[in-house]
Amino acid sequence: MRNLTLLTDLYQLTMGQGYFREGRHEEIAVFDVFFRPNALITYSVAAGMEQAADYLENLRFCEDDLAYLRGLGMFSEDFLAYLKDLRFTGDVTAVREGELVFPYEPILSVKAPMIQAQLVETALLTIVNHQTLIATKAAKIVDAAGGGVMEFGLRRAQGADAGVYGARAAMIGGCVGTSNVYAGKLFHVPVSGTMAHSWVMNFPSELEAFRAYARSFPDACLLLVDTYDTLRSGVPNAIRVFRELRAAGHEPKGIRLDSGDLAYLSKRAREMLDEAGFPDTIICASGDLDETSIASLKAQGAKIDTWGVGTKLITSADLPALGGVYKLAAVFENGVEIPKIKLSDTTEKITNPGEKELYRLYDRATGRAVADYITRAAERVDESRPLEIFHPVETWKRMQLTDFYARKLREPLVVAGKSVRERLPLSAHAAYFREEKARFWEEYTRRDMPHIYKVDLSNALYTLKRDMVRAGKGE
């Protein structure tokens, strides 16, 4: 595995030397990862926890790293000697991959010596922010399509890592395959793909190109039919080759459309294929698709079975950054917790102080999620008694839950520097996401004008936050 220890911002190291100089580098601190509301995000799909755990478990400064830092002329020799033996020894609690998460929720918390907790901020954010963003975008696209989405974005990703780990996240969000062969091997997921326009153009005629491809892949023949003229040559030539395949004892797979009026072309192509005796062949569409264009195509009655989605998925084109943040929540002095809070004139930027726990509350009769509930770490939700929850800002908005149950959303990811969570296949994470999403009312997860899901604070946490805000200080 690559050594990513220097995958950090310089100020993490300058602060580290400062803590070292002040004798506070071993002080235990708690940091939370969460994201703030955005008009384009009503829910997110958590992803990247496995890579976060790998990064933390392998944290160490090699001799080349130390030589580079020494060459900057900024760091003292005693600090560099300290870094030589540094390992991550802290604890991390996080939600599961595939968990639906909402603004302000501590989806991952780090409890570690201050210098360690500060050093890992940048890498944890880039890992979790990116994969959560792409998993969320994939989930929205898959929801619009109703399934059958393949991730085709590697060539348009912002670099190799974005393409590889974006493919991983897309599978968690519900994609059924990827064109990315490296990701297929690395994560043991299905790969898919057929031909490019260059294949068709490289033969004397479209028909010869199709025949050549069919000879190589007689049992997986899916032909790209829009290189020249979709309805006048592409589909008729595909049908001709399909008949030849069938005569030789093979069944064709289908066709792909990559341009033009996909609604009209798919409907007409479906008619032509059916009339020719190939009703079971599929029609795949690709070409700058996203959840909006797919929803429009389906509303127009497009006859498309599977979708290849690239650029707008792998780059999350309409929202290129999740905006997750990493904020100090508490420090411990002689084992005693001292909550910390970031204050701001902007209400949304005031943080929730102290160590916390995160619960999801379900209506017992329907099994549906009602609200998420952030508490202080030592609190427990008593399911035997009615629970009043309220909006954390507009506190007059209240409701009482009587017949409910609570589920703790977070579990240990890293304990004493070691990864402790079972490694599951991506199919398990994707299945978990589907199952949990089904426990939400559609109004909370729909694409257009969704209801805002409730994320409330316990009375104890709300009171702590209110009193710290009134005091006007971070402790």
Key descriptive features of the protein:
475 residues, alpha/beta, nicotinate phosphoribosyltransferase, TIM Barrel, seven-stranded antiparallel β-sheet, six-stranded parallel β-sheet, 38% helix
Shape: globular
Report the radius of gyration as a whole number of Å. 26 Å
Question: What share of residues is helical?
Answer: 25-40%
CATH architectural label of the largest domain? Alpha-Beta Barrel
Description:
The protein folds into two domains: 10-119 and 323-471, nicotinate phosphoribosyltransferase (Alpha-Beta Barrel); 141-314, Aldolase class I (TIM Barrel), CATH 3.20.20.70. It has 17 helices and 21 strands. Helix 3 runs antiparallel to helix 4 (77-84), helix 6 (121-145) packs parallel to helix 13 and helix 10 runs parallel beside helix 11. Helix content is 38%, strand content 21%. The strands form five sheets. It has a seven-stranded antiparallel β-sheet. The protein has a six-stranded parallel β-sheet with strand order 7-6-11-10-9-8. The protein has 475 residues and is of the alpha/beta class.
Helix and strand topology:
Elements: H1 10-22, E1 28-35, E2 44-45, H2 49-57, H3 63-71, H4 77-84, E3 91-95, E4 100-101, E5 108-113, H5 114-119, H6 121-145, E6 149-151, H7 160-172, E7 177-178, H8 181-187, H9 197-201, H10 206-216, E8 222-224, H11 230-247, E9 254-257, H12 262-275, E10 282-286, H13 291-299, E11 306-309, H14 311-314, E12 324-333, E13 336-339, E14 356-363, E15 369-376, E16 387-390, E17 398-401, E18 404-408, E19 410-415, E20 418-419, H15 426-437, H16 442-445, E21 454-457, H17 459-471
Parallel strand pairs: 6-7, 6-11, 8-9, 9-10, 10-11, 15-21
Antiparallel strand pairs: 1-5, 1-12, 2-4, 3-5, 3-19, 12-13, 14-15, 14-18, 16-17, 19-20
Helix pairs in contact: 2-6, 3-4, 6-7, 6-13, 10-11, 11-12
